[in-house]
Amino acid sequence: MPIQNTVSSYACKALRAVSVLVLASAVLPVLMAEPAAAQDDGNANGTLDVNALPPAPGLIFDVQAGEYILFDGLVDRLSDRKYVLIGEKHDNPIHHHHQAQLVDALSKTETRNRAIVWEMFTRDQQNTLDHNWQDIPISELGPAMAWEDRGWPSWHDYAPIAQAARDNGLMMVAGNLPDPILRPMVTEGNSAIPDDLANQLDLPDMPTEILDRFNVEIAEGHCNMLPDSMLGGFSAVQFARDASLARAMSDATRIEDIDGAFLIAGAMHVRQTIAAPWHLRRYEPELAANDIAVVSLIEADDPGPDASLVEDYAMRFGAPDDIDFMWFTNDIARGDPCQNLGMGE
Question: Which of 216, 329, 228 is closest to 274 using CA atoms?
Fold first, then answer.
């Protein structure tokens, strides 16, 4: 479940984010087209290496190509990918705007008809989702699915993604594990998964390298307040949730006229070497290397003399090859999540 964060001065920050995005969109083509002769970054020709610039809100970086690209270039490079996983920070409304923009643009290319799988809807909600999906206004879909009651940030922020799905006739898929089995899994492991779902997920033993990374991340994500004895149980839940999302994506492509899937999920669920993509390759070993694309929406640090570089952001997710495209955004105001946190919360 997500950790709720209070977003202050939303309207002001949203305006600032849009302004920065517009500025970046205007400036980047100029930088990419013309050398900045007046600036010398150590290049032998005295020209500015645009791709060495530190990330800033509105910029998109193709990690494999090692270059900044424009939004149209991102759409072009993703157009034929079977699976497009778009990672987010749950409480950042800018991320959901960008997810909707990308889903809409890729769906209009008519290269593939992708279903859209959601981390935020659980498998036991699929019937309710099917029943409500075409029959009620998008603004009412979240309340009908008990969205905010289940702890997610405002449905208003996510609604544009659902609107893009409806506008393009995309199938909506609930991908996550049912909430009632999560707590039992922490203590009972995979035996808490119902047999039919366990057969679908076909979970292997978790590789040691994945378990070690999950344990560290879960400890840090809980402010190092979890007993070490509980880390393995939480990691098992994370591993199974990633498998559930991947299985939902793969299963969707077996439906007539659907030949791909989007995933809307937290950024940690979309990493190439450790999360949902790892399971997708397990379910579909015939997948080509470029059949899976990971786009992560990432909050850019405040600029300064020691600004982080693209590779620094990559390592925050655990490995330099976990993300294919980094789309940088503004951050939002948050308090310290560890302040006054108790184990009962």
Answer: 216
Claim: this prediction has a pTM higher than 0.70: yes
Q: Which amino acid is at 242?
A: D
Q: Long-range contacts of range 60-64, CB-CB < 8 Å, 24 or more positions apart?
A: 60/325, 60/326, 60/327, 60/328, 61/310, 61/325, 61/326, 61/328, 62/324, 62/325, 63/310, 63/314, 63/320, 63/321, 63/323, 63/324, 63/325, 63/326, 64/324
Give how far Cα 7 sits from Cα of 10, 17, 221, Å.
Answer: 6, 14, 19
Distance separating alpha carbons of residues 66 and 49, to the nearest angstrom: 12
By CB atoms closer than 10 A (0-12, 13-18, 19+), residue 281 is middle
Taking the C-alpha atoms of residue 231 and residue 221, their distance in angstroms, rounded to an integer, is 11
* Residues 345, 315 contacting (CB under 8 angstroms): no
301 contacts 333 by C-beta, under 8 angstroms: no
Q: Quote the CA–CA distance of 72 and 97 in Å, as a whole number.
A: 16
CA 140 – CA 148 distance, rounded (Å): 12
Mind listing the pLDDT tens digit for each residue in 34-55?
433 333 444 555 566 888 888 9
Which letter does DSSP use for residue 336 in this model?
A: -
Q: Which residue type is seen at 151?
A: G
